[in-house]
Amino acid sequence: MLRKAIFSLALMSGGAAAWLSAGSDPITADAGTAVAAPVEHVLVAAADIVPGVRIEPAALRWQPWPQDALIPTYITQAAQPDAAEELVGMAARSAIMTGEPVHPGKLVAGDAGLLSVMLTSGKRAVAVRISADNTAGGFILPNDQVDVLHTVVRQGADGQSAASSRAILRKVRVLAIDQMIDNDTGSVVGKTATLELTPEETETLVAAEASGSIALALRSFNEVDEPVAEAPVQARIAKPIRVFRGVQQETVELSR
Q: How much is the pTM?
């Protein structure tokens, strides 16, 4: 009988201690309650969107996005609830990856051609004839940056031919390379390169191609712009001449 009384008392003491412990720890009571961060729904790509291809309804979806990570260019459901339907049929200027937010700056009307979609505003697309010999062995690909070299061959008075080459354009973006299989080597060789140029650069390139040959020099992707070298200044040579003024003679030095 005594043992039962002691055991009951021990149970009552343990329960009371546990109750007091739980009631005196406010951190434990709130541990299961997490404060949710405010979110917005942002329009993102539901699948990879290829440049120039019209956007299908299944290519877009709304995704929760933390409000403190929003950028003004993002399309939110609160501001444009019908954006997912309105953008169907448009085309992307550049690739949009799955889960990447969509914004109007990357989109153009879907009836535009693929190349015009890829062009930067104010630029022109110009095609030049190329071969593996004048395009870094055929390793130049779309979106690479190149220098355009112009070579002219002139025949001197002695009948000997002399060639001169210079860079007429620098850091030009390659938009496209048309490619076909070389039957002899089995390699892929482009016959035409399409470059992205300003209107002034377009005139320079067309004139250069008509007066000589064009070659493309591939630039490193990580290359820092080098300063443009100034043309060397030729030393002036003094040449004395005699000038007669009536009966008087005067020597004058002219530089050339």
A: 0.50
Instruction: Name the domain count of the chain.
Output: 2
Mean pLDDT across 64-90: 90
Give the residue among 169, 218, 224 at the shortest CA–CA distance from 197. Answer: 169
Q: Which domain holds residue 50?
A: 39-116
DSSP the chain: -HHHHHHHHHHHHHHHHHHHHHHT-HHHHHTT--PPPPEEEEEEESS-B-TTSBPPGGGEEEEEEEGGG--TTSPBTTT-TTHHHHTTT-EESS-B-TTPBP-GGGEE-TTS-HHHHHSPTT-EEEEEE--GGGTGGGT--TT-EEEEEEEEEEE-TTS-EEEEEEEEEEEEEEEEEEEEE-TTT--EEEEEEEEEE-HHHHHHHHHHHHHSEEEEEEPPTTPPPPPPPPPPPPPP-EEEEEEEETTEEEEEEEE-
208 shares a domain with 132: yes
Asked if pLDDT for residue 162 goes beyond 90, the answer is no
61 with 94, same domain? yes
Q: What is the pLDDT of residues 46-75, one digit of tens each?
A: 999 887 778 888 999 999 999 888 888 899
Look at residues 69, 94, 116 and tell me which one is the last residue of a structural domain.
116
Does residue 160 lie within any of the structural domains? Answer: yes
Q: With respect to residue 83, please indicate whether it lies within any of the assigned structural domains.
A: yes
Q: Residue 26 domain-assigned?
A: no
Indicate whether 199 and 131 sit together in one domain: yes
